[in-house]
Amino acid sequence: MADVVNLNRFRKQKQKADAKRQADQNAVKFGRTKAEREREGAIAELTTKRLDELKRDDE
Predict the structure, then answer these.
(1) CB contact set of 40 (below 8 Å; sequence gap of 6+)
(2) What is the pLDDT of residues 24-34, one digit of tens each?
(3) DSSP letter at 2?
(4) Region Disordered: start and end of each range (predicted)?
């Protein structure tokens, strides 16, 4: 006799694998690492802070 296969489980595994494959492609195409995003955010914050410190109050 053949083994019984749960088709719902097979379908869900296939969907999960497809989603993972798509996510990996998007990460390569668009993504940056978390460290890169945090570093750029920190640099932008420091730049903004520095510019605010250099502003004159001419009012």
Answers:
(1) 32
(2) 999 888 888 88
(3) P
(4) 1-27
Amino acid at 32: R
How far is it, in rounded angstroms, from Cα 28 to Cα 23? 9
DSSP state of 4: P
Report residue 33 CA to chain centroid gap: 7
Q: Which two tokens stand for residue 40?
A: 């750029």
Q: What is the dihedral of CA 4, 7, 10, 14, to 10 degrees?
A: 150
**Two structure tokens written together for 51:** 């510019």
Taking the C-alpha atoms of residue 16 and residue 8, their distance in angstroms, rounded to an integer, is 12
Neighbours of 31 (CB within 10 A): 13
Pick from 11, 30, 34: nearest CA to 22 = 30
